[in-house]
Amino acid sequence: MTTAALLTARAAPELAPAPPDDLPAWLRLAHARGLRPPALRALLGAFGGPQAVLAQSFADLARVAGDDAARAALAPPPDSRAAFDERVERTIEWASQANNYVVTLADAAYPQALLTMPDPPPLLYVKGRLDVLQARAVAIVGSRSATPQGIEDARRFARALSDAGIAVVSGLALGIDAAAHRGALEGAASTLAVIGTGADLVYPSQHHALAHDIAERGAIVSEWPLGTPARPENFPQRNRLIAGLVRGVLIVEAAMRSGSLITARLANEMGRDVFAIPGSIHAPLSRGCHRMIKQGAKLVETPEEVLEEFGIAPAAPAATAARKRSGVAANDDRSRRAEAPPPATASWASARATSPNPTPDEDRVLAALGHSPTTLEILASRTDLTGSTLQGLLLRLELAGHIETLPGGRFTRIERS
């Protein structure tokens, strides 16, 4: 079937990447400077394939896509011919390795969701499972400098969505992205990492193990040539691809100036749903979420609310149900202990001293506390501090006026204007 036919009437997926003899032409056009994806898509639809496009005259190409597009399509590779040939050989070698694919607009494996974008990338580098590209998906994105509560929320929502059969898409970044991928891997479905580097690189470097797990159970996707390093200008374009792959985007934590808000805006422009988790009015990383809610994003407090929007019933697999059953007794015991304040806190409501600067250990507790009421058990798990040490730090923080104790054995920060 020709590229033109595939662009207008998609066949049932037969997961086959582009043949090697077409690959040089695809690489030349996909990465030609100044050739925008909509123009290339128009040329492919008119002439039937990348080799046919390169065989046309300037006038024929210009008649379909304009002079600038024709000039870009017929220009020699931006690097030397030898460098381009080396890139082709490197790409063919990479694609010959197990679970590495180059997927083009002409392939049935190309994600159907991206075809609804105004500018779908003509070529994708995929490492992992091709079938995941067609899965129902929701993106979970947020701050790289996430709070402990944000990390827990991202992981919990991702695991619940995964258990319900929804693939979780994110960007492999620190913070919320990594938590979303890990939560999805703990569930029944899969996860997609859309990256801003070449598919042969991992950024940030500390996510090598996570990237390996994603490639085993899901997929890593990039539209950048192999070897492309992390550049700031690549990530807004990466965010556009995240928005295009999914049915909705969930913002967990985001500052007012955040790449996550770019993802949400692009998703909204593409007709995708946008969800946001609210937080404290004092928390800087809640302000981006609150801004999106004011602009029409759906406020959600549970994963079930996201699933309800898509008409999907939450469902936990047997393994997840067993995991939950095994943890019931321990959780109940921890809850009972947390409901009563520890003996050392009985007189914590005394008058507070003038607030000194917190010590490093006290700063560690404040960071773990975040901006939401938190129990002693949760603080202990976040800080790895022993009970007596943690209680002593909490006492000093309360006497200094940094925190206060709430009913039920919970603690909260005192926000200062």
UniProtKB/TrEMBL annotation:
Annotated DprA winged helix domain residues: 351-409
Gene3D superfamilies: 3.40.50.450, Winged helix-like DNA-binding domain superfamily/Winged helix DNA-binding domain
Pfam families attached to this UniProt entry: DNA_processg_A (PF02481), WHD_DprA (PF17782)
GO biological process, one term: DNA-mediated transformation
Positions of the UniProt region annotated as Disordered: 321-363
Low complexity bias (residue ranges): 345-356
Protein family: Belongs to the DprA/Smf family.
Protein name: DNA processing protein DprA
